[in-house]
Amino acid sequence: MRFISEVATSLVVAGVLIGTAVSAEIRGSYPLGLLAGDGLTMFDGSFLRYRPEEGWIGEPFPQRTIDDLPIEPLGISGDGATLVGAEGPSRTEGEAFRWTKAEGVVRLGSLIEGAHSFATAVSGDGSVVVGHSQDGRPYQWSAVRWTKEHGIQNLGTLDGPGRSFATAVSADGKVIAGMTTSARGIVPFRWTEEGGMVGLGGLPGEDFLAITHDISADGSTLIGETAKGHGGSPFRWTETEGMVEFVFEGTLPGSTQLNGLSGDGRLAVGQAMFENGDRHAVIWEQGRSPRLLKEYLAETYGLGSLPENWTLHSVKSVSDDGLTFSGAGLNPSGELVGWVLTVPEPPTAILAAAALATAGLFNLRRNPRR
Q1: 337: buried, middle or exposed (CB in 10 Å: 19+, 13-18, 0-12)?
Q2: Whole-angstrom Cα distance, residue 260 to residue 327?
Q3: Cα separation of 295 and 298, whole Å?
Q4: In 3-state terms, what secondary structure has residue 307?
Q5: 54: which DSSP letter?
Q6: Which of 170, 186, 196, 328 to pair with 162, CA 20 to 30 A apart?
Q7: DSSP string, 154-186
Q8: Average pLDDT along the chain, 370 residues, taken 10 residues at a time
Q9: C-alpha to C-alpha distance for 133 and 304, rounded to whole angstroms
Q10: How far apart are CA 236 and CA 225, in angstroms?
Q11: d(C-alpha 180, C-alpha 267), whole Å
Q12: Largest Cα–Cα separation, the chain
């Protein structure tokens, strides 16, 4: 396992060299891997982990099993040091685990002895794990939170009996997002220690059937999708705006799904499925409608075509700083593989920062300290 191809393109804006855009391929059995918030640590579908100071390493799961049971890593901490997931024969039968290099695999248990559980996300430093567990009721699951100090905690559901699933957690572990059944259908929720579980409703005029995919580092922004016709309607939720539907820029696709958020919640990534069956990676920036990733790269960095004729089908994750993306696509040979793309700060942001610095220097010169 190694980086197969690497293409660097210098970017020049107003005669100033501002950095390079680097595209690197990860060839693995499963194209979509996990990208840590630091943008440096990757865990690919071939059960190998990459860190710049270590390179590709075969731990923690070189055999893809624990005690002969298949495993599935589902989440990675922001610092890249902790992996979480489940070991078991299927998506409905398993036991949650947490892995670190120092401790190895630690099983997290479930709400009742012998029940199934799954860990789906982990906080920035790996101290808080979230997911879902069977809770003793037939065929029912409850969102849960694990910590070393307090073990497993049942987050409950809205409106009494039902199901809930935790899918994302803020960097400090204090805000958890997911979905739960309620009197109005399946709705996204936001949980805090102070306020407990709060349902976030749905989009106007649509059935309440929602899935939450990610949460910003500070827990203030959520993304997901609600049912709409034969496809999905992606949404963004904030405390100030509530739930807002994303409207795609340009030709309307059959459905759009947003998978990951940057740390500040100002950028989201995912994929769009068009009526003709084509799939393309998409990106959303605050203040704009979602657009194709290739259009974003062309408009922001002047990359008129993708390196070596790549086709980017989807974006799975984005780093906290919004500069590193991972996903799946077709390489120049037509193979479905994983990819990682790192870009510099957008030219507009750099020029704006330079303008502010210049203005600040000008003001200091005009108003010296007395």
Answers
A1: buried
A2: 11
A3: 5
A4: helix
A5: T
A6: 170
A7: EEE-SSSSS-EEEEEE-TTS-EEEEEEEETTEE
A8: 28 29 37 75 66 63 56 87 84 85 88 92 97 87 95 89 92 96 86 93 67 94 78 83 78 74 94 82 87 86 68 89 86 76 71 39 36
A9: 47
A10: 8
A11: 25
A12: 75
| Among candidate residues 176, 173, 171, 206, the one with its CA nearest the CA of residue 188 | 176
Query: What gap in Å lies between CA 45 and CA 324, rounded to an integer?
Result: 18
Note whether 111 and 91 are within 8 A (CB): no
Q: Which residue's structure tokens are 């408009």?
A: 299
Spatial contact of 155 and 166, defined as CB atoms under 8 Å apart: yes
Whole-number pLDDT of residue 352:
40
Residue 284 phi, psi (nearest 5): -125, 135
Helix, strand, or coil (residue 293):
helix
Q: How many CA atoms lie within 13 A of 34 on its CB side?
A: 24
Cβ neighbours, 10 Å, residue 369: 4
The H-or-E segment that residue 23 falls in is: strand 16-26
The answer to whether 108 and 97 have CB atoms below 8 angstroms apart is yes
The residue type of 230 is: H
- Tokens 């700060």 sit on residue: 345
3-class SS of residue 101:
coil
pLDDT, residue 252, reads 53
- 121 close to 167: Cβ distance less than 8 angstroms: yes
Residue with tokens 């005009």: 366
